[in-house]
Amino acid sequence: MSKAELLLLDFWVSPFCLRVKIALNEKCLQYEARPEDLFGGKSELLLNSNPIYKKVPVFLHDGKPLCESTIIVNYIDETWSSPPLLPPCSYGRAQARFWADYIDKKVFDACGNVWRCKGEVPVEAKNEFIEILKQLEEALGDKDYFNGATFGFVDVIAIPLTCWFFSAEKIGGFTVAEECPKFSSWMKRCLQRESVAKVMPEPEKVYEFVLMFRKMQGID
Amino acid sequence: MEGAVVLLDFWPSMFGMRTRIALAEKGIKYEYREEDLRNKSDLLLQMNPVHKKIPVLIHNGKPVCESLIQVQYIDEVWNDRAPLLPSDPYKRAIARFWADFVDKKIYDLGSKVWKTKGEEQETAKKEFIESLKLLEGELGDKAYFGGENLGFVDVALIPFYSWFYAYEKCGNFSIEAECPKLIAWAKRCMQKESVAKSLPDKEKVYEFVLHLKKVYGIE
């Protein structure tokens, strides 16, 4: 499959775009990740391919667009079956979708509620974020990955969000490693995977972006 | 695939209705258990400890939570009849996109329509209609979002039709006047037994909304 047949409209720091890149990497697929200038001006292709939300990621397979990262990852898993990201049995898949949905509903917003704070971060914001990670630790249990012994769907959905945690830690004055050591170990384990390591931005670079964004929004 | 199926539900919940429709489409016998949301059962709290919400589908004693996940699970397990999702992965992804759009927009905007007044309500009504028009666009000339038969998006959206009367009364507007194609689609769905028997009477829903307004202290 030539590179041009798989195109991702991308933004380097977007955890949602990272999900798609990791999924494609897991499947050993060649693709083009085309950067979008979200602040300067979105491309015609982006606006035409995602007229509803006008957001990245947009994944184009032979020119056919798909939007929403979790849906894209699902599509990639169904179209290129090896190695499988979702478990083989229906119940296992329902559980995986449940945790992906939980992560989608909770993690990025709770993390944002910490790093977007003007001045002192309220204890409630920090606690809410930590509680969510603790819930995920419970779901992880003694497994190496959310998927079990092997890296899978929920791991793909979750790991990209973690490059934003350093920003919350710096601004909130806590560390995930101290509050949620199991979750922290899982993070380290995932970051050792080539499919993840070769696309995840450095947390310090994400923090620089967060500081720039805070200035732009008038928080700093 | 057989085995006891229990649905923990609450009669006016659009989310519960989705699962009811899916079970009915597949002809699955199940036990329906009405939850009192002011006094949730131990079973509900045990089966959905994370969100503590209905609907919860319990199959062979194991819980599946979140309505769209339940519908997909039902479709996969009882895969020998009445398919809800298309077999083509791209078409499946498109169906998931629109079901997700319904989740992101219709519930919240609909809630704003009945909960608010004045300018906030006018904005909610406008955005609500805009979202329904986008769905009309996706429907196009098809009988159902699923094509010739009920599909995933139809199941995701049709429960809200039972709340349209309440939205219209509270918002003082006509959804049919703005989105005739969508209402035609809704009436077509209501002719299906699986849908008709899963949706509550619109007057009962309106009574329920009036009761909620009293409870929340909304004029």
From TrEMBL, chain A:
Enzyme Commission code: 2.5.1.18
PANTHER family: GLUTATHIONE S-TRANSFERASE, GLUTATHIONE S-TRANSFERASE, GST, SUPERFAMILY, GST DOMAIN CONTAINING
Primary location group: cytoplasm
Organism annotation: Hibiscus syriacus
Molecular function terms from GO: glutathione transferase activity
Catalysis: reaction(s): RX + glutathione = an S-substituted glutathione + a halide anion + H(+)
Any single GO CC term annotated in Swiss-Prot or TrEMBL for this entry: cytosol
Subcellular location(s) of the protein: Cytoplasm, Cytosol
Domain of life the protein comes from: Eukaryota
Listed PROSITE patterns: GST_CTER, GST_NTER
Gene Ontology BP terms: glutathione metabolic process; toxin catabolic process
InterPro entries linked: Glutathione-S-Trfase_C-like, Glutathione-S-Trfase_C_sf, Glutathione_S-Trfase, Glutathione_S-Trfase_N, GST_C, GST_C_Tau, Omega/Tau-like, Thioredoxin-like_sf
Alphabetized UniProt keyword annotations: Cytoplasm, Detoxification, Transferase
Family affiliation: Belongs to the GST superfamily. Tau family.
GST C-terminal domain: residues covered: 89-209
Pfam families hit by this protein: GST_C (PF00043), GST_N (PF02798)
Domain GST N-terminal intervals: 4-84
Name the record gives this protein: glutathione transferase
UniProtKB/TrEMBL annotation, chain B:
Protein name (record): glutathione transferase
GST C-terminal domain boundaries: 88-208
Cited PANTHER family: GLUTATHIONE S-TRANSFERASE U19, GLUTATHIONE S-TRANSFERASE, GST, SUPERFAMILY, GST DOMAIN CONTAINING
Database matches in Pfam families: GST_C, GST_N
Family of this protein: Belongs to the GST superfamily. Tau family.
Cross-referenced CDD domains: GST_C_Tau, GST_N_Tau
GO MF, any single term: glutathione transferase activity
Superkingdom: Eukaryota
Keywords: Cytoplasm, Detoxification, Transferase
Domain GST N-terminal residue range list: 3-82
GO CC annotations on file: cytosol
Recorded catalytic activity of this chain's protein: RX + glutathione = an S-substituted glutathione + a halide anion + H(+)
EC number: 2.5.1.18
Organism, scientific name: Hibiscus syriacus (Rose of Sharon)
Cellular compartments annotated: Cytoplasm, Cytosol
Record GO biological process: glutathione metabolic process; toxin catabolic process
KW Ribonucleoprotein (keyword) present: no
PROSITE patterns cross-referenced by the UniProt entry: GST_CTER, GST_NTER
